[in-house]
Predict the structure of Nucleoporin Nup37.
Amino acid sequence: MKQDATRNAAYTVDCEDYVHVVEFNPFDSGDSGNLIAYGGGNYVVVGMCTFQEEEADIEGFQYKTLRTFQHGVRVDGIAWSPETRLDSLPPVIKFCTSAADMKIRLFTSDLQDKNEYKVLEGHSDFINGLVFDPKEGQEIASVSDDHTCRIWNLEGIQTAHFVLHSPGMSVCWHPEETFKLMVAEKNGTIRFYDLLTQQAILSLESEQMPLMSAHWCLKNTFKVGAVAGNDWLIWDITRSSYPQDKRPVHMDQACLFRWSTINENLFATTGYPGKIASQFQIHHLGHPQPVLIGSVAVGSGLSWHRTLPLCAIGGDHKLLFWVTEM
């Protein structure tokens, strides 16, 4: 008997607005709970989640909002800084956003009186991805429809600028070797750059367009995953510049690809909201079929919990969380 993989969300949180983007903090912030940030039409909310999967004495799941940051314009992307600490006095909350006005905003807060943001200007079209350098948190990388990847310091000065052949869709920093950056382009090319020489050192080809999202597997940095057209694609960069594995996954075009933070064979994809509700799927490389299928009326954003096999997605006035097995 084939087990049906379709599931409802295990947990939900009600929100005041349509959620455009959601990100778990991928770094250890020194506290037992997990920081999460989500963005709506004109604000960012930073909250704390604790799940029964990690704290046995909790029924289900607990969520509390720590702070709401006014943003003034639609939030398109959120990236956490590794400098965020909850175990310091005062605490440090640090993240950046990309927005519909093509600007990056760098927010710093102590969750009390200090709440500042700095605007980083330079992109001339929509920003599709942004990330902090994971070791020191002193630089931000961003990619845009303006065919550039830019590196910024925290003062807002551009320290590097790569011209791309098509819109930049995703950018990832190597977790250990922080001079290595992965940039994925809409034309199906994924390039790795050496930030010391500011040269491309390796490229991968999907041979499919449009490539909408790509992600470097942080558990095994020889693995890269992406969605292009209706398919997910996986590369082993030690073996070939062409995908090792690919499969059709979303009828209305695939949208996002994210590796699990804890298992190099587990990843999630989302499809565009089309004629059917947007699909969310969790895949395991050992299984021919998705191990979990969820449906969200209008889903956007996709983020894995730092230590659990658990995904968050934004929806219509809510956050939704799905849990899978390892």
Q: What stands out?
A: The domain at 126-248 is CATH 2.130.10.10 (Methylamine Dehydrogenase; Chain H).
